[in-house]
Write a sequence for this structure.
């Protein structure tokens, strides 16, 4: 387990409390609907989407939910490094195989109730794999066997992967980095997601300095204007 998993290593910290607040806000945002699937996206590299998706998954798992975290960033995914699991067979490998054998691709983590599917081998056609009917069927299978499924997706700018996934999940969370993400880029990310029919829950502002900490997060249900 790496230092990225703050919710697991420092459950009483301000950062961990922020992720529990994010979890609660997401649950309350779907009062009339069932929340089963969440996509975590960003505008560009380096904003901390994997940090957010990992800790959000931990927060749900600590609440007793059976959680599956899937690395959909089949280009530069790093969740296998965060959780110290093998990346030999992952999501990309599953999508070109018999999806009925999905259980053999799921790995347990040190966190109770939390399992993971790493990215796998880098494919030549990530977007095509995500847009396939096989992926949609697989997502339905995951929903049947897990309480919460979180998809860590690629940055939106210049790629269609996240737009494809955002249409298929219940809620999409955008991660932005304090003093790093240009407002115009964040607005363009929001517009791109809305245009494809994504149900955008809000923005997590990551790397907000709080009491001297390097990593922190704040959740906003609305976008700044």
């Amino acid at each position: 387990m790496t230092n990225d998993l703050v919710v697991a290593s420092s459950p009483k910290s301000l950062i961990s409390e922020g992720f529990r607040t994010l979890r609660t806000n997401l649950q309350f945002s779907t009062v009339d609907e069932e929340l089963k699937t969440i996509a975590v996206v960003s505008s560009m590299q380096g904003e901390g989407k994997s940090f957010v998706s990992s800790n959000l998954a931990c927060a749900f798992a600590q609440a007793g939910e059976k959680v599956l975290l899937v690395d959909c960033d089949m280009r530069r995914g790093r969740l296998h490094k965060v959780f110290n699991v093998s990346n030999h067979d992952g999501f990309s490998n599953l999508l070109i195989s018999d999806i009925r054998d999905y259980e053999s691709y799921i790995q347990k983590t040190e966190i109770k109730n939390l399992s993971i599917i790493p990215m796998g081998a880098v494919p030549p056609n990530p977007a095509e794999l995500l847009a396939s009917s096989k992926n949609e069927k697989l997502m339905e299978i995951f929903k049947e066997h897990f309480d919460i499924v979180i998809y860590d997706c690629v940055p939106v700018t210049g790629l269609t992967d996240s737009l494809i996934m955002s249409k298929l999940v219940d809620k999409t969370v955008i991660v932005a980095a304090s003093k790093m993400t240009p407002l115009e880029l964040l607005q363009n990310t929001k517009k791109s997601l809305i245009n494809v029919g994504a149900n955008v829950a809000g923005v997590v502002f990551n790397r907000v300095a709080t009491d001297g900490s390097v990593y922190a997060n704040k959740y906003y249900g609305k976008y700044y204007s």
